[in-house]
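Here is one chain, start to finish.
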Amino acid sequence: MRQRSPDVLRLWLLAVFAWPALLGVLAADRSKEPFTIRISCGSFDDIRTAPTNTLWYRDFGYTGGRFANATRPSFIIPPLKTLRYFPLSDGPENCYNINNVPNGHYQVRLFFALVANPNLDSEPIFDVSVEGTLFSSLLLGWSSDDESTFAEALVFVQDSSLSICFHSTGHGDPSILSIEVLQIDDNAYNFGPPWGKGTVLRTAKRLKCGSGKPAFDEDLNGTHWGGDRFWLGLNTLSSSSDDQSISTENVIAETSLAPNFYPQGIYQSAIVGTDRQPSLSFEMDVTPNKNYSVWLHFAEIDTGITAEEQRVFDVLINGDTAFKDVDIVRMTGERFTALVLNKTIAVSGTTLKIILQPVKGTRAIINALEVFEIIPAEKKTLPEEVHALRTLKGSLGLPLRFGWNGDPCVPQQHPWSGVDCQLDDTKGNWVIDGLGLDNQGLRGVIPGDISKLRHLQSINLSGNSIKGSIPSSVGTISGLQVLMQDLSYNELNGSIPESLGQLTSLQTLNLNGNHLSGRVPSSLGGRPLHRARFNFTDNAGLCGIPGLRECGPHLSVAAKIGLAFGVLLAFLFLVVFAACWWKRRQNILRAQKLAAAREAPYAKSRTQFTRDVQMAKHQRPHESTRSSNNESSPHLLS
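Its structure:
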């Protein structure tokens, strides 16, 4: 294959001197197989498909979403039976994240299908991005157009991972049948400046002329380093033209060579003009105000042309002469030899028109053509800030409807909800300069990693149910001007970190309506005198500035709770002690009464006995006297 520009001599000299290096690159490329991964979306098992026994991996672990049976709307779609779709309730953006991809140049192709469920929207409309760059938008009617049932882009992988995202536009749930990631030559489709890692090429058109049968590179026995391009077969360039198809089985020279590795089969058929209409014309719709890279493929396979000067034509693109006096035999040196011409075109309108106008001889010829839209690759967000946002997502319990998948800032048409971005020209990356997640039902805690969002200027987490304390690391975000318009009306506790006083640019700080306690840092207390607006009200434990109670010896909330608990225990102890004492007293009195009742007869008899004894003692003197008198009487008488 030879690629020539109008300056044939200059390119020929360049080719002569570069040929040894080219052979070295080619040998190195063919010494190993390119990295390839094909994913059957929604499949639980690895699958092989006929006729090439192609291996498709299941998509477990790559993404979320739901799986369903698929309806294939086009015959060119791989014969797979399942797909994966992403309801809007799962978030507006959902991504396949493929890791451990060797750095290099890749052809990324996606096939779309319809969910085999009549209750779901039969034809969703959504956008597709790769590595943060939007490259395809499915429009109404895509399922009825073979070429619209897939999207393809050439992209550079630079950090060993590849992100492919699907962005809902509110019209149905994005549904994906398959994903292919095929490594190609690092220099493939080099169209000159500004080609490179800063560009993404979207395949807008790829035609194989003279054959109505579509084919993939695999069907044309192409080398794997060329990817697996799909060529739509055409017998005529337009329905109104009087074109003629020709073909050959002769071997075509200069094919399957680096860096594009075009298969021989695309040069073995062609469309030529006729005597009645010798010129050829092709027209396609394009996006206005974009740049396009046009690749034209030629090989002189017409048996009626045997020498130079027998077929010479000009190539006009949108009315301008892109290539003048194209003589395939002269430029390649012989018949049955491939020739590729490339031109970059800036298109201001909605149409790209290519005309091949004969100059000498009769009838123009073309074997194949490719058209790519040149898309500037988006700058990505600083990785440490992306990681910090993902930590914040988990810590705050962000609802699933937010999504927060892929890159926070790009594509610019689909940034993350609640995230404000700014392009840092000095770093060449996007940074996060604002968070607005107020009144979203958040119930987690604020992680310390929030300080890694070093470019934040405003935060608003008010009106949620966020718990825990304010991380002291917030005080290291030097650019903060508005801290949470605000952090108010949450369930934050603990004290206000002294580090907040280091935020010299802080203009608004609303911490009202929380459970904060302790002294307000003195570095913040005087700030309202300098036009700053701070609000610390509705925090019963805060003190130390006007509008709040004075600080002094006082108990913390925990201490107050402990003291109240101790007093309650003491009171309960006294009540129990009093109850026990009263009960014991009653028991004693009851025992005394019982004892008294039992001892009453004994006491009565004992009292009577005592009385009798006493009376007896009282009567004995009289009896003694009487006795004496009685004893003495006889004596006296005698």
